[in-house]
Amino acid sequence: MSTAARRVAARVVERVFEEGAYADRAFRSAAERLDARDRAFAQQLAYGTVQRVRTLDQAIETLGRRPVRKLDRPVRAALRTGAYQLGFMDAVPAHAAVHETVELVRAAGLERAVAFTNAVMRRLAEGLPDLLARLHEETPSAAALLHSYPDWIAEAWWRELGPDDARALMRAQNEPPETAVRTPDGPLVVDSIPPEWLESGYAWPQSRGSQLAGAAVGARPGDRILDLCAAPGGKATQLAAAGAEVVAVEKHPGRARELEANARRLGVALEVLNADALELPDDLRGFDRALVDAPCSGLGVLNSRPDLRWRAEPLPELQLALLRAAAERLRPGGTLTYAVCTIHRPENEDVVDALGLPVEDLGARWPEYRHPRRPELILTLPHLHRTSGFFVARLRT
After folding, report:
1. What is the mean pLDDT of the chain?
2. Is the pLDDT of residue 1 over 70?
3. Residue 341 among the catalytic residues
4. Residue 117: which of 72, 67, 79 has the closest Cα?
5. Does the pLDDT of residue 273 top 90, yes or no?
6. Range 209-232 average pLDDT
């Protein structure tokens, strides 16, 4: 693959870790001029490096004998992408990874670092396979290093799921996510999405876990439904397609406009309200059902968001506040569905318990997705169900 593709990947890695950029946004802007083949290679290299950076840094420091934090930014990014090619991209010859990484540093104008980069890459080419083979997963911290996660995520899954499932989940979240769409006929997993499906409104990109969360609302024709965190509109349009009258709330004006455009493309009618979910108009009441697909740490979608594991933040206080705001807008006997794309007890069943409303038995409807500790709740697990991780509860006011 071309030097240009590697340059794009290194630039994305640098922006993510040095400037706090989001990987997908950084890649879109950096890769505009690449052809399809180079773009695919650059994306695999950039996203894979971001995902595996903890393991890569361990290798660079061990074999390079210098702390990664003390390297110049371009050198750090180049060595990370170079190490990823050597450790995780079998199709890339070692000599090509070494040469191209050195050239990245030279192109950055850091001639003084060229010899060092060359030496470290040669040591990595020789020693990385043995180093990776010596890593193990017998403890949370060891598994976090092997699979490249922050310790706190490994510890949480170890505690909540047990060692075997925690290890399997970490492995699964390093694999490419499924490509799934919602169609009028239901969920469909595909190798790729034909552009005409999206342009015509026939399909919407949405994982099976996400579609399950939408289905759990139980929308029926004529229901008035409040979707409190609605953009970009996957679940809101799913509810509207079921015949419900949907009010979709979105705080950010740009995302609210995007939601409206997506609804038009899919040919469904819904009302978009650009407002803060915690400060809704007083007369917005009497709904039959509400959906709160709340902001969360995103620990169920780490394979589709390469940088998220390094910036993930649990948000139980916000989640509880949103649920209470939604519950106030329901008629007596209405139902409130809580969905989050995370696998984390403090944001899952602990939030439901704190709300204190009666819980309906979703596990009876979808027994294959029963929560391992709370069978009335549902939890999709990437290593078991091969889709994104979603926690879903339905409560009654």
Report:
1. 96
2. no
3. yes
4. 79
5. yes
6. 96
Residue spans per domain, the chain: 3-135, 136-172, 180-396
- Measure Cα distances from 228 to 24, 151, 212, 282, 311 in Å: 25, 32, 18, 15, 24
Instruction: Go through 246-259 and write b for each residue having 16 or more CB atoms within 10 A of its CB, e for each that does not.
Output: bbbbbbeeebbebb
CATH code at 180-396? 3.40.50.150
CB 117 within 8 A of CB 105: yes
Annotated catalytic residue, options 125, 341, 343, 351: 341
In this prediction the pTM is: 0.94
Q: Which fold has domain 3-135?
A: N-utilizing Substance Protein B Homolog; Chain A (1.10.940)
Q: How far apart are the first and last CA of the chain?
A: 58
180-396 shares the fold of 3-135: no
Average pLDDT over residues 62-78: 95
Residue 87: pLDDT band by 50, 70, 90 thresholds? very high
CA angle 300, 19, 298 (to 5 degrees): 10
Q: Cis peptide before 67, with omega less than 30 degrees from 0?
A: no
